[in-house]
Amino acid sequence: MTAPKTFVAELGVIGGRLVSRPRWDVDADGRILRAGASAEFEAPPAGATRDFGRALVVPGFVNAHSHAFQRAIRGATHRRLAARDDFWSWRTAMYERANTLDPDGLFAITRVAFREMLRAGFTTVGEFHYVHHQPDGRAYDDANELSWQVVRAAQDVGIRLVLLEVFYQRAGAGREALAEQRRFCDRDVEAYLARVEALRAAGVSVGLAPHSVRAVARPDLEQLAAYGARERLPMHAHVSEQRRENDECLAEHGCSPTALLGECGFFGRPRGFTAVHAIATDADDRARLRGQTVCACPTTEADLGDGLVEASELRSDGVALAVGSDSNAIIDPIQEVRLLEMGERLRSRRRICLAGDERGLGASLLEIGTVAGARSLGLDHVGDLVVGNAFDAAVIDRRHPLFAEVTDDAILDALLTCATASVVSHVVVGGVERTP
Amino acid sequence: MTAPKTFVAELGVIGGRLVSRPRWDVDADGRILRAGASAEFEAPPAGATRDFGRALVVPGFVNAHSHAFQRAIRGATHRRLAARDDFWSWRTAMYERANTLDPDGLFAITRVAFREMLRAGFTTVGEFHYVHHQPDGRAYDDANELSWQVVRAAQDVGIRLVLLEVFYQRAGAGREALAEQRRFCDRDVEAYLARVEALRAAGVSVGLAPHSVRAVARPDLEQLAAYGARERLPMHAHVSEQRRENDECLAEHGCSPTALLGECGFFGRPRGFTAVHAIATDADDRARLRGQTVCACPTTEADLGDGLVEASELRSDGVALAVGSDSNAIIDPIQEVRLLEMGERLRSRRRICLAGDERGLGASLLEIGTVAGARSLGLDHVGDLVVGNAFDAAVIDRRHPLFAEVTDDAILDALLTCATASVVSHVVVGGVERTP
User: Fold this and answer.
1) pLDDT of residue A46
2) Domain containing A27 — which CATH number?
3) pLDDT tens for residues B112-150?
4) Is the ipTM of this complex over 0.85?
5) What is the spatial distance between Cα B216 and Cα B424, in angstroms, rounded to a whole number?
6) Can you name the residues that pair with B7 across neighbouring β-strands?
7) What are phi and psi of B357, to 5 degrees?
8) Closest Cβ–Cβ partner in B115, B303, B417 for A75
9) Closest of B183, B157, B152, B185 to residue B169, by C-alpha
């Protein structure tokens, strides 16, 4: 809760369109009461006015996939770790760090990551949270101890959180969880759902997240999909990040991970499911995902040698695209959406690949980085600065040297295709400035 | 010229290795007299001491390929320009801007680009300069009018310049220059070399740059290679950025662009020639380029849909790698070297691809961004902060939130694989602070 406020600036984006001298009147709950060009408003601003001056105000970016604790190994895995360095040798190093965390340590590193997200212009994070229990797998006195630490870190820095609570059970088909995976695992779906219910009862915005078809058996997937559908919760899973997952799924289930998830009931609701990565997918998988979301994590997917997602084909097939910072080696929404477009250019040897409509490429990339992520997290009042929505904004420094010589009509294209998060000067979450 | 000075900081890189509390004693000409850990020095610093505090001092980055004026169209080409948007439709838009420039305009935009380079940590630029004459092709009263504007812009902001003076003659095999290419063209090689001689006589550091095998006929290539070899000048050319160039070269000369340049005599001296891009090259081309340099421009090569250079294969075949900001849509040495590594990871589905030796990936990427670029520009006293070299440095803010939780032993890897130019706080060129 805060006092009603009016926000103005030189430039802003409303409904994906650039507006000169925009103004937003925001109520005490941080909801937008009125939005438009200042000139259209009859009355003077009521209450306090915050003028961002020569700035461009865009919707706050939405980070649809994060593992905050992995921020702890930034830079520490870019050396030879194994005879063959790839995703799997990286995972070994990452697990080592995951197993050193105690509740205070998890809170501290999550806070570092969330603060950096705010600084980078992310105002919402979907935290795909899987470090649940003590290193030996026993529950803490409160089985949600570590989930509460994530919630507390988000509250402490003021970022909007959707807790994508992960269910994890096994190392793979017929294989028990490894020693280093024990703390990720709940006893069974019932124990997991009891934790979910406790979090929801406390008002935490929760999504269901079976980790992957590798880590969860089919009957459990079916049970989770049924609960998610009944409760209308957003559902996320890692899907086909590495070909090995596809090979193993084919051997166990005779089909692709996407096909299995479809059979288990995850795709019943439009935009109800988000497939994270979805790199090793084919045309049949894309058809199954129609109406759902794929969350791409381009900086991480390059870092881990995962490959390029087929973004243009997914869009053509009716799949929405969102982005996430995933491993948090890099925390920068602008780089994520830019690399998504640039990956398409490298694949097709053409330019201007993800422009959605006449509003152009910048507006389209902005939508991927904002609205699409919000929908994937089940948030319908976030992602665009229109009436009724939360005033979650990233304020861009129009005077940054990076924008010298860039005209207003190219500013959105330049922001999303040439800049980095360093141009973000302030963020606002629910009407409250949260600039760290 | 400046007073002798001593530079110290918490961390520095000397000879590709991290040094605690480094110290450099620099003479009045900006040359390093002594370099090492402060603890190794017996005498106290002579003259003024500049302490960069909790910073990491690395060699200034070297931008081995830039078209400064293209900074004017940053953000302006990321919209639909043609039925098929690719390199060629971008080039049309770029030519339009090139033809609006007068001497003052060229100076102004070059200054903007060079200032941004300094801010990003580039202390040297190889400016591949091809806008020479009036829009209708007639020479200015001084035929080097526009080259002087580039020199003046570099002097004004204090960046070290190697002027890669371009020779341009034709639109393609048997095709006269297009109207919009006229101002790039000299009457003949003699007229061009007269300009080069005038620049050299005035003390400008010059390299020879036949634009491409597309734009220069074979006899002229031979004449330029002979002059460059005799005068021991660095030589640069665009090579195989797009497959179309290869197809046209095959039709005209019966061989690849690289093979043609070899036959014309460009590869006589180790590291005497730099092939810019070299994307559409094969194993035979790589063998021909052994001992030379390929300048990759990953942000531009993604933007223009050129494709990924085969960096690992080039290195295995004994070709050095350097980087350039090329179109200057993005000016960021850290992104250039990171995307070079990340491109390899995407191609190979592995990690840690360009680590050269036991010093590790960060040191190797730093070498690509510094020493290799300096050698490609014919500068043997630039690129590393060792005794006898110029003190050209980029000062990295170790306290930047991006480096929170990153330990010293991972700092170089984190800098080159996770950061952006936003962590550069100061630059020094030849012992003089040039932070814009």
Assistant:
1) 62
2) 2.30.40.10
3) 999 999 999 999 999 999 999 999 999 999 999 999 999
4) yes
5) 39
6) B24, B50
7) -145, -165
8) B417
9) B185
B355 and B260 in a common domain: yes
Q: What is the pLDDT of residue B42?
A: 75
Is the CB of residue A93 less than 8 Å away from at least one CB of chain B? Answer: no
Q: In B55-199, at which residue ranges do the beta strands (DSSP E only) sit?
A: 55-59, 61-66, 122-129, 160-167, 170-172, 175-176
One-letter amino acid identity for B216? Answer: V
Location of structure tokens 């105002």? A123
Q: Do A410 and B75 touch (CB under 8 A)?
A: yes
Asked which of A360, A376, A392 is the last residue of a domain, the reply is A376
How long a stretch of residues is chain B? Answer: 436
Where are any strands of DSSP class E within A113-216? 122-129, 160-167, 170-172, 175-176, 206-210
For residue B245, what are the contacts with CB-CB under 8 A and spacing of at least 6?
Answer: B212, B213, B214, B238, B257, B280
> Structure tokens of A283?
């045309």
Phi/psi of residue A322, each to 5°? -130, 175
Residues A20 and A111 in one domain: no
Helix (H) or strand (E) holding B39: none
Write down which residue in B376, B392, B410 finishes a domain. B376
Residue B327, classed as helix, strand or coil, is coil
- Coil vs helix vs strand at A196: helix
Q: What distance in Å separates the CA atoms of residue A238 and residue A236, rounded to the nearest whole number?
A: 7
* Of the candidates B118, B127, B215, the residue with the CA atom closest to the CA atom of residue B174: B215
Instruction: Render pLDDT for A186-222 as a digit per residue (tens, 0 to 9).
Output: 999 999 999 999 999 999 999 999 999 999 999 999 9
Q: By the 8 A CB rule, do B412 and B11 touch? A: no
CB contact under 8 Å between A79 and B402, yes or no, is no
> Which tokens is B436 given?
């814009």
Chain-chain contact of B75 with A406 (C-beta, under 8 angstroms): yes
- b/e per residue, A417-430, with b = 16+ CB within 10 A? bbbbbbbbbbbbbb
For A2, the 3-state DSSP assignment is coil
Q: Would you list the DSSP string of A11-79? A: EEEETTEEEESEEEEE-TTSBEEEEEEGGG--SPPPSEEEE--SEEEEEPEEEEEE-GGGGGGTTTTSS
Residue B354: its H or E element? none
Q: How far apart are the first and last CA of chain A?
A: 19
| Rounded Cα distance, B213 and B218, in Å | 8
B355 and A CB contact within 8 Å: yes
Q: State the Cα–Cα distance between residues A225 and A235, nearest whole angstrom.
A: 8
Is B1 a residue whose pLDDT tops 60? no
pLDDT tens digits along B258-296 = 999 999 999 999 999 999 999 999 999 999 999 999 999
What number is the average pLDDT over the span B248-261? 98
Nearest in space to B342 (alpha carbons), one of A335, A63, A72:
A335
Q: Is the domain of B125 the same as that of B241? A: yes
Give the gap in angstroms from C-alpha A198 to the nearest C-alpha of chain B.
32
Using the Cβ of B418 and the Cβ atoms of chain A, whether some distance falls under 8 Å is answered with yes
Tell me the residue type at B63. Answer: N
Identify the pLDDT of residue A2. 67
> Is A308 an 8 Å CB contact of chain B?
yes
Q: Considering only CA atoms, which of B353, B356, B372 is closest in space to residue B364?
A: B356
Q: Which residues, 6 or more positions from A139, have their beta carbon under 8 angstroms from its beta carbon?
A: A132, A133
Q: What CATH number did the domain enclosing B268 receive?
A: 3.20.20.140
Yes or no: say if B214 and B253 are a contact pair by the CB < 8 Å rule: no
The domain of A402 spans 5-59+383-434
